[in-house]
Amino acid sequence: MKLHAGRHLIDLDQPRVMGILNVTPDSFSDGGRFLDVDDALRQAAEMIEAGADIIDVGGESTRPGADETSVQTELDRIMPVIEGIADRFDIPVSVDTSKPEIMRVAVSVGASMINDVFALRAEGAIDAAVEAGVPVCLMHMQGTPRSMQESPAYERLPGDIIDFLGERVRHCLSAGLCKEKLIVDPGFGFGKSDQHNLEILSKLNQFAELGLPLLVGLSRKRTLGNLTGKPADRRLGAGVAAAVIAVEKGANIVRTHDVADTVDALKVVTAVNRIG
Ligand code: 9MG
């Protein structure tokens, strides 16, 4: 499986690591650390050096309870960072946004992927993605970041999520997106209890029925904190374990704050899986 992302070709025959770069004051783990463009570019350089395959740049926090950010604020935060990474480094940059205006500008300044936690449900988002012509990650979320953790409920797991993603894929295809450009993501922590997250992870192989690359993000998330009793910046072991389990169950791209350790762990998984 290969993903054409602008001038980049991402070979998904081995697991890939997407490094998280939040240019926000309020993200749950790295909020406020990379608001300065130079700090953000230094962090991108560090993640690339550590083996990241994609850098995901976001200018609006999607943590539970987060407030919405205006288009102009989001643009001001991410544009110089996306442009800076695309100019300086040979790596695909993904823009983490649900807003069509941001998708258009981000791709025009160098982003070669869209990561949408709202699965292109915002008005005009599908058209923006079709025009952009870059791969899009469609993520499942129940509710909105403001309300999603209030009382998440499912009839069947992971069936309800697979059905939602299948429906979004069909909708995107009928609107003109091509299948080769779609990626799906169960959206760990987005309208899910700890038990939901664990059940989805344990049955992750069922997402293969969608026939699309699978992206997962568990890095430092609350479920890992509740399991270990540790704060966000001490969930490395738990995050790496979750990434390894996800890849063993079919994930193609792992989104993480902890690039170096995740890359090392996935090298071991890949080497072992090549043998048998
Ligand atoms: C932006 N963001 C935060 N968590 C995420 C996850 O699990 N997947 C994707 N695709 N994006 C995420």
Structural notes for this entry:
The protein is α/β, with parallel strands linked by helices and 276 residues long. It is 40% helix and 16% strand. Helix 2 links the parallel strand 4 and strand 5 (93-96). Helix 2 (71-88) runs parallel beside helix 3 (100-108), helix 3 (100-108) runs parallel beside helix 4 (125-132) and helix 8 (236-248) packs parallel to helix 9 (259-275). The longest helix is centred in the first third of the chain and has 18 residues, at 71-88. It starts with a strand and ends with a helix. The structure holds 9-methylguanine. 9-methylguanine binds next to strand 7 and strand 9.
Tell me the layout of helices and strands.
Elements: E1 2-5, E2 8-11, E3 16-22, H1 37-49, E4 54-58, H2 71-88, E5 93-96, H3 100-108, E6 113-116, H4 125-132, E7 136-139, H5 159-174, E8 182-185, H6 194-202, E9 215-217, H7 222-228, H8 236-248, E10 253-256, H9 259-275
Parallel strand pairs: 3-4, 3-10, 4-5, 5-6, 6-7, 7-8, 9-10
Antiparallel strand pairs: 1-2
Helix pairs in contact: 1-2, 2-3, 3-4, 6-7, 8-9
Distinct small molecules: 9-methylguanine
Percent range for β-strand residues: 15-25%
Please give the order of strands in the largest beta sheet.
8-7-6-5-4-3-10-9
User: CA-to-CA gap between the ends?
Assistant: 20 Å
| Overall average residue pLDDT | 96
**What is the ordering of alpha helices and beta strands?**
EEEHEHEHEHEHEHEHHEH
Query: What's the CATH H-level superfamily name?
Result: Dihydropteroate synthase-like
Q: Measured on Cα atoms, how large is the radius of gyration?
A: 17 Å
Main beta sheet strand tally, sense and closure: 8 strands, parallel
Tally of DSSP helical segments:
9
Number of domains: 1
The gross shape turns out to be globular
> What's the CATH class, please?
Alpha Beta
